[in-house]
Amino acid sequence: MKLHYGWTVVAVGALMTCVGMGAVFSLPVFLQPITEQTGWTRAGVSSAMTLDFLAMGVAGFGWGALSDRFGPRIVVLVGALLLGLGLTLASRATSLLEFQLVYGVLVGIAAGSFFTPMMAAVSGWFIEHRGLAVSLVSAGLGVAPMTVSPIAGWLVTTLDWRTAQLIIGLAALVLLVPAALLVRRPPAAAEAGPAAGGTTADGTGLSVARALRSPQFIVLALTFFACCATHSGPIFHTVSYAISCGLPAMAAVSIYSVEGLAGLGGRVLFGLLADRLGVKSVIVGGLLVQALAAGSYLFVSQLVGFYSVAAVFGLAYGGVMPLYAALAREYFGQRILGTVFGAAAMVSSLGMALGPVVGGWIFDTFNAYDWLYIGSFAVGIGAAAIALAFPPLPSAEPRRLQPA
To answer: Which are the contacts of 276, defined by CB distance < 8 A and separation ≥ 6?
Structure first.
């Protein structure tokens, strides 16, 4: 029964990350229609996504702590309601500031309720196949560009952007609220209870304060930050970059979908490799491939070239992202996983926040995206270098984390 319902939670988590995060990440599809119909600058609209990542990261830390205490179901249910409300209000915004606050803060807070609590919950349902399970939950992020983004692209070509965004918000409510009711805590966490005295599900008694001071957490958070800083700009701006190269809008959106499809495969592939070869080595290799792919966007201008680079880029960043949760579970155990992984995700959100606004500023300043991809390549190499400093996993040493 435990294993059976664990896979049900995996499926629900994949749906929630697909619909919830897909609704948020549809903003790149709306970028050009919004700027053309409102006169707002690309940097200004992109700043809403930057605020999104910041709010998502801070809220993810809080949502993760709440899920440790009260369970993930109530967290994702409240998040689903806030997401629908936020997207509806954003579609009615009459000024850039109003749009930035509603889309960037309210929607960001709502979106933060999905990834961290669901990744933490699924990690607790599995001992074997944990890497695959968390990768499948994260696969929802890969499916989103193949589903939500093309739907958004079709809507903005047939309707105005406000109506299109309203429809996406209402659809998110219809799909996510019932899904949230299917979420359950892992049995071990449920038995331990929210106030179980000082031992994790795997027997460790690590406190949150000690975990957040450990070198394991510091390296984990820094790697997560640099990884996200590498791919956030290319993810957000490649549709606009492809349009600036002369590609039609729907063809440019399809590049985003190719990234998502490749990311879906990458999540499954990297999850299987991590279960077989170890999480650290797979993360380091994936980060190197991600850096090379980000830099390769500089050398393409035709659709076939964009598809080729997007496939490699999506495979790499999609495969690496869910493995941080598996690594955190190995280091810190289940009892405080939502809080600790939420803290790491909060740091990573700062990296995600850089790409949209910096990319918008680069385009507004230079009327080109070259420096965005050069910078992404450099940061990506740095991410791989930081990942090499990961301390040994607890299974390879006594389960005792040393303070930094």
So the answer is: none
200 vs 17, 331, 333, 348, CA distance in Å?
27, 11, 6, 25
Q: Letter for the amino acid at 273?
A: L
CA separation for the pair 191, 184 (Å, rounded) = 12
Q: Name the residue with tokens 């680079």.
A: 309
pLDDT of residue 202: 45
Are the C-beta atoms of 272 and 309 separated by less than 8 Å? no
| pLDDT on residue 270 | 87
Q: For 229-251, how does the pLDDT look when each residue is reduced to its tens digit (9 = 90+)?
A: 999 889 888 888 898 888 887 78
CA distances from 233 to 35, 106, 182, 217, 229 (A): 18, 22, 34, 25, 7
Report the chain's terminal Cα–Cα distance, integer Å.
41
List of the chain residues with pLDDT < 70: 1-4, 127, 142, 145, 188-206, 334, 392-404
Angle of CA points 10, 15, 16, to nearest 5°? 95
The residue whose two tokens read 């009615």 is 92
Residue from 129, 137, 120, 149 nearest 22 by CA: 149
Closest CA to 318 of 287, 358, 352, 349: 287
Which pair of tokens denotes residue 62? 């809080």
- Give phi and psi for 138, each to the nearest 5: -65, -20
Give the per-residue pLDDT at 306.
Answer: 94
Chain centroid to CA 403: 28
- pLDDT recorded at residue 393: 57
| pLDDT tens column, 360-402 | 888 888 888 899 999 999 999 999 999 988 876 554 444 444 4
Q: Which two tokens stand for residue 360?
A: 């918008």
Burial (CB count within 10 angstroms: exposed 0-12, middle 13-18, buried 19+), residue 174: exposed
Amino acid making up residue 279: V
Q: In whole angstroms, give the CA distance from residue 360 to residue 100.
A: 14
State the CB neighbour count (10 A cutoff) for residue 13: 30
Residue 177 burial (C-beta neighbours within 10 Å; 0-12, 13-18, 19+): middle
> Which tens digits make up the pLDDT trace of 255-268?
877 887 888 788 88
Cβ 282 vs Cβ 274: under 8 Å = yes
d(CA 153, CA 250): 7
CA distance 25 to 110: 13
Alpha-carbon distance 127 to 121, whole Å? 12
